[in-house]
Amino acid sequence: MHVLIVGAGLMGTTTAWYLGRHGVEVTVVDRAEAAAMETSFANAGMLTPSMADPWNAPGTLSRLIRWLGREDAPMLLRPHAIPSLAGWGLKFLVNARESTFRRNTLKNVTLANYSLDLLRDLGTELELSYDHTAGGTLRACRDQASLDHAASLAEFLAPRGVEFRVLDRQGVVATEPALGPVSGKIIGGVHYPGDESGDAHMLCRSLSRVARQQGVRFRFGTVVTGLRLEAGRIAAVETGAGPIEADVFVLAAGSFTPLLGRPLGLKIPVRPVKGYSITAPRGDWPEGPRIPVADDHLHAAVTPLGGRIRVAGTAEFTGYDDTVTPSRIANLMGLLERIYPEYAARMDRNAIEPWCGFRPVCVDGVPILGETPVADNLYLNTGQGHLGWTMAAGSGKAVADLICGQVPAIPIIDYRIDRF
Ligand SMILES: Cc1cc2nc3c(=O)[nH]c(=O)nc-3n(C[C@H](O)[C@H](O)[C@H](O)COP(=O)(O)OP(=O)(O)OC[C@H]3O[C@@H](n4cnc5c(N)ncnc54)[C@H](O)[C@@H]3O)c2cc1C
Questions:
Q1: What values do phi and psi take at 196, rounded to 5?
Q2: I want to staple 78 with a disulfide (CB 3.0 to 4.6 A). Which of 184, 226, 318, 397 is the partner?
């Protein structure tokens, strides 16, 4: 069996690896010149079953309206993107109902826990280096309402194995001493000892290298322009370099997956939600952060990645506009100044690497994994949204298992496209 995967981001690379493990012939096709050059390039780096809640939480509509037109808003809706969001946006809001949101959160935490276990095993077994830390993550809260919200979500997830400790101000600083200078602004927080962090790009690069050594083929610099459907099966992908045939096809093209499905009549309810990050050398900062800190009020996360510090955040509905907007980068700098002011004051600003990427957000906040109704040899691995790093290994293994006729370890019915 020859499986062709479109996309060499987190989803494509992990799927390829696990398929290779099953002894299958695999080709990965990507338009970029290397693995993980798009959304998997510079995300916040957090591996967080603790953040399994979809972004369309109850109250999303009122928050979106409140933030309309505010350039520093954590979630920003650009007017030009509204037509492309019409039907999807309505369903996004419908999924914000309390009962639906809770059910979807549980689906996510199941996949996230499974995935993190697999990633740990992969890292150890293959000796992958990806600036990994395992000291947990910390949610810092600046007001009682956000602390109460974080604590109640943590209690909801605890029966699913997400450990947590609710902390007062002193507890926050004891857990992450680098927050000492802003402790007066923080009223408390939640520490999730089971969370981890690491660089997704480094992981993809190392994993694709090992996969290639074990026989997986990567065809970089190759744009897939369409899929050829013949008698209920996909026969080939069309590329600028001619068609490539295979027995089975997996679409793992992140936010671009719906564009590949559409000509086949396959409606994939995933839309791009743009996010930004800045990465800078840690420099001489011995007292710098040990673990990622998500600041609930500021909607930003700061993650130490080896010798670097990464600040990530913001969600922008702006279609596929990949401009690195200066005001959003300035916004991230402003957030850094409020979380680690001393570092922001002395960091090397010339060395800052700004970046943006499109989170592939599914309308119900849960990924889409498995078979499609349009062709019996076409599979999907997309829609992981803000949790794609956390869910990558589990998503890849589940799809690889399905293709190879094995029952995945997670209840795949929760993630299939026919739930819509
Ligand atoms: C600012 C930000 C912060 C984030 N932080 C976190 C975090 O802390 N933790 C977490 O779990 N997740 C996080 N995420 C989410 C995570 O990064 C994504 O969910 C994940 O990277 C998506 O991976 P993917 O493989 O689906 O997509 P991608 O990485 O985008 O890969 C898709 C690949 O498909 C290729 N492709 C697309 N179309 C074509 C075509 N027509 N022909 C050929 N190739 C094609 C692209 O080149 C690309 O390489 C964050 C995302 C952002 C934007």
A1: -140, -175
A2: 318
